Amino acid sequence: MQIIRSVQQMQQRCLTARQAGKRIAFVPTMGWLHEGHLSLLREGRRRGDLLVLSIFVNPTQFGQNEDFDSYPRDLERDAALARDVGVDLIFAPEAADMYPRGYQTFVDVEGAMTSVLCGASRPGHFRGVTTVVTKLFTIVQPHVALFGQKDFQQLAVIRRMTADLNLPVEIVGMPIVREPDGLAMSSRNVYLTDEQRRQALVLYRALCEARRLVAGGRTDSAGIVESLRAMIEAEPETRIDYVEICHQATLERQRTVDADSVLLLAVFVGKTRLIDNGYLLPTD
């Protein structure tokens, strides 16, 4: 396994691999790897001849007063985990190389898809995401890129961007990986105190409750959301950003639950913002 810092060197390595007929699988991350990331890498190992992991805490997707400076970073730790699952190349560029002096170009998926949910509370976030992913795709030139479904809106936006720009990359979404008690794995879970960690389980409990209500015949989204908000607000250190039932592809709010419905949650527990989601009806 090799760690590459240079944009030009990374681009050349991947171009050479493509010319040799190798299939490139790519997993972009911000590091502080956990089992969710490792599940993406294992699937990438299965799908590609060359497995590339990027580790880059992207400054353009963080807003003011967010956790860019405190976001956990440990390249040595991440490299050891990556080596164990068979990563071939780690791309770990510096921000000054990705966004050099005079940088002026951004990629933006416009419209409702990026202005609702996380887009409403984190203006500019998805412009940063789509810009860095486009740059990474240009540098790594992958045949397939793997993303976790925990960031459901991000995955939908990246699918839209990839289709709209005719990028020759297969986008694969992988299921959420959870702790044994149901908490969705996240690099930000490290911020939680023991008591906040206990309260954070309310996100998964809310998802389970929504599925229970739907299985029992409830289909009115507003009534279901009202019940879930009351459940979440009962925990003393929680503050709801959003609880919505949306169409899985368009992210438009749905008045009635159907097979395309997904529950999307964003909740602050203390100062830590956590997200979770899940389909409300069984999927094949």
TrEMBL record:
General remark: The reaction proceeds by a bi uni uni bi ping pong mechanism.
SUPFAM superfamilies, sorted: Nucleotidylyl transferase
Listed name of the protein: Pantothenate synthetase
Positions that bind beta-alanine: 61
Residues of the active site: 37
EC number: 6.3.2.1
Family: Belongs to the pantothenate synthetase family.
Domain of life from the UniProt record: Bacteria
HAMAP family the record matches: PanC
Keywords: ATP-binding, Cytoplasm, Ligase, Nucleotide-binding, Pantothenate biosynthesis
NCBIfam families: cyt_tran_rel, panC
Group of enzyme by EC: ligase
Species: Geothermobacter ehrlichii
Keyword Disulfide bond: no
Record-linked Pfam families: Pantoate_ligase (PF02569)
UniProt subcellular location: Cytoplasm
Major subcellular location class: cytoplasm
Binding annotation for (R)-pantoate: 61, 154
Binding-site residues, ATP: 30-37, 148-151, 177, 185-188
GO molecular function, one term: ATP binding
Recorded name of the encoding gene: panC
Catalysed reaction equations from the record: (R)-pantoate + beta-alanine + ATP = (R)-pantothenate + AMP + diphosphate + H(+)
Function, as annotated: Catalyzes the condensation of pantoate with beta-alanine in an ATP-dependent reaction via a pantoyl-adenylate intermediate.
InterPro entries found in the cross-reference section: Cyt_trans-like (IPR004821), Pantoate_ligase (IPR003721), Pantoate_ligase_C (IPR042176), Rossmann-like_a/b/a_fold (IPR014729)
GO CC, alphabetical: cytosol
